[in-house]
Amino acid sequence: MEKRPLIGIVTPVLAKMYMKDILRGAVSQIRLCGCDAVILAPLIQFEGAAPEHAQAELEIFRYIEAREIDAFLYLKDAPSMGAAVTEEIERLLLKTQKYVMTVDEQTHPVFDSTQYDDYDDFGRVVEHLIEVHGYRKIYCLTGPADSQQAQTRLRAWKDRMTQHGLYFDDSYFEYGTFWYDSVLPYAEKLLTGRLPMPEAVVCGNDVMAVSLIKTLIAGGVRVPEDVAVTGYDGYPFTSNVDVTLTTYERDHFHLGTDAVRRLYRNMTGLLCSKAARKRSGFLIGSSCGCTNIPPQPIPTDTDTAVPRMWSEYMFGVSMAPALAQAKTLPELLESALHHSKTIFQMKRVRIFICGRSGEYRLAASCDADGVPQIHNSVPSAKSAAAFLSGSPDPEIVFVSPLHLNSRQFGMISLSFGEHGRVYDENWLHYVTVLTQALDRLYLGRPDAPDCADEESVRSRNRSELNEKLIRLREKLREAPTEQWTVETLCEESGLSKSTLQKHYKQMFGKSLFEDLIEFRVDAAKHLLADTDLSLSEISAACGYSTESYFMKQFKRITRQTPTEYRRDARRKG
Fold first, then answer.
1. What is the pTM of this model?
2. pLDDT digits (tens, 9 = 90+) for 322-337
3. How many helices (H) and strands (E) does the chain have?
4. What is the CB neighbour count within 10 angstroms for residue 120?
5. Which of 376, 492, 497, 548 has a CA-to-CA distance to 318 between 20 and 30 Å?
6. Across the beta sheet with 396-404, what order do the strands follow?
7. What pLDDT score does 196 carry?
8. Within this chain, do residues 241 and 363 fall inside the same structural domain, yes or no?
9. Is the separation of the CB atoms in 542 and 481 below 8 Å?
10. What's the Rg (C-alpha) of the chain?
11. What is the mean pLDDT of residues 474-492?
12. Cβ atoms within 10 Å of 183's Cβ, excluding its own
């Protein structure tokens, strides 16, 4: 069977609904493109987590360096990942020299990016207030001033007000935080009369809209009779028993499909048709002044819903007591896999247990038939493809680490097969119970797994180490276009990975791959100035897989596009 392209997806913990929608769109599109995907799925919010636990969770991202992965989709969420984790992920992605497509609010300085354009959709909410209800004095409460999303939504409001000939000045809009905290001082200004009461307030998201409605009602202002309020984003909640929120559901699903289509085209040069899903768009409630509104105007997404009969059947089915009875590791794994049936629409669960060397020493799996299997042969712990089953159909697999604080047990993977689902809180609970059982089983035993990197750093004479690093740097400078990897650099220098990375940066002030990028850009400069080669020929000659990736890195280093640099160099020449 011909190898399918393998896409690595880097995600935060899937706590946010919009992130789940983006991923579902991406997964549907990947399957339509005929690719496989390994989703590196941490199960915690790194920001605010216990340092020991967060450090162990980072183990999942070592698969970014897996050779089998052809390109990456990076769902960036800085608030939940934190600055340090985000920096480490992007360092690893950059080091691979593979194509990366980010999905984020901001344009990424190095990788290609796909963002959601709120301008038209947010404008429709404003038009609804003007054209349907005839409101003229409309305020806007948007998000932070440094947020691209907030500025786009504010611009849409200003443009619609201008197009309809409606007056507004700087007092008509205010920057918030996209959270509850910014609503109270804003509502206080309205309730005390320091800010005249408008006919309507269009809020930049649903969280602020709900909070504003509740605060106004508590202050004696009727919504929508005295002032109308609308939200934006389409989250499935209502603001009050009697007031349902008018909002607009962002099409995050198609944000995911668009990002994958762009990635696929850059990776293969081919176009792929777009995965389709019926979108809701406007979600009309009573908060805008509309009448005869159903009590729950926001529908439940069938991709996330679990049937009530299934929930009732599984209610009270707990695997913790069963795992507590296990005396051996195979017994524990068989019992855990038997209970994987509690994961709705589960297609396959696989568990990989590592030994003290960090390599897998035991593997077990269970398909939808509910029959656990223990495998004698185990794959390499460095292989991302090990999580795939070899199915003739495209495979999408979630992979997460198994650990309790700093004690590493291995990895676990989950596949929903052809279903367009992503994991939910039931999966988090399943993994938590399993890791606690593994910890209990191994407590105090000499064969307890410990996946920490055991590669020892031999004591070396400092001058000898420096000479090796200098020779390696000269080698990189002389041949920057070669496809260098960590393994080949270690082999070239005779140093271990940890020693090489640590001391190289200490000595030269840059990482290996930061230096390599600059050397490649230097080589490109010479080709731009001294030859008539096209940009695609130069990017290939300098070791880049795509022209767009080359252009981004060149501009980041030189602050010029390759075309601008060539023009200036020839003027000076």
1. 0.72
2. 888 888 888 899 999 9
3. 20, 16
4. 8
5. 376
6. 112-114, 99-103, 71-75, 6-10, 36-40, 396-404, 407-415, 348-354, 360-367, 372-375
7. 95
8. no
9. yes
10. 27
11. 82
12. 23
Provide the domain limits for residue 330: 309-442
The string of pLDDT tens digits covering residues 336-362 is 998 888 888 889 999 999 877 677 888
C-alpha span between 14 and 470 (Å, rounded): 44
CATH of the domain at 545: 1.10.10.60
Measured CA to CA, the distance from residue 18 to residue 552 in angstroms comes to 28
For residues 438 and 313, membership in a common domain is answered with yes
Q: How far apart are CA 121 and CA 498, in angstroms?
A: 49
Q: Is residue 452 part of a domain?
A: no
Q: Is residue 403 part of a domain?
A: yes
Report how far Cα 369 is from the mean position of its chain's Cα atoms.
31
For residue 293, being part of any structural domain is answered with no
- Claim to verify: residue 416 and residue 470 sit in the same structural domain: no
Q: Indicate which CATH number applies to the domain containing 209.
A: 3.40.50.2300
Give the model confidence (pLDDT) of 131-156 as tens digits: 999 999 999 999 999 888 899 999 99
In terms of Cβ atoms closer than 10 Å to its own Cβ (0-12, 13-18, 19+), residue 48 is exposed
| All residues at 6 or more sequence positions from 258 whose CB lies less than 8 Å from its CB, including other chains | 114, 274
CB 288 within 8 A of CB 200: yes
Euclidean distance between the first and the last CA atom of the chain, given in angstroms as a whole number: 54
Q: What is the DSSP string of 51-110?
A: HHHHHHHGGGGGGGG-TT--EEEEE--HHHH-HHHHHHHHHHHHHHT-EEEEESSS--SS
- Cα torsion through 369, 374, 378, 383, rounded to 10: 30
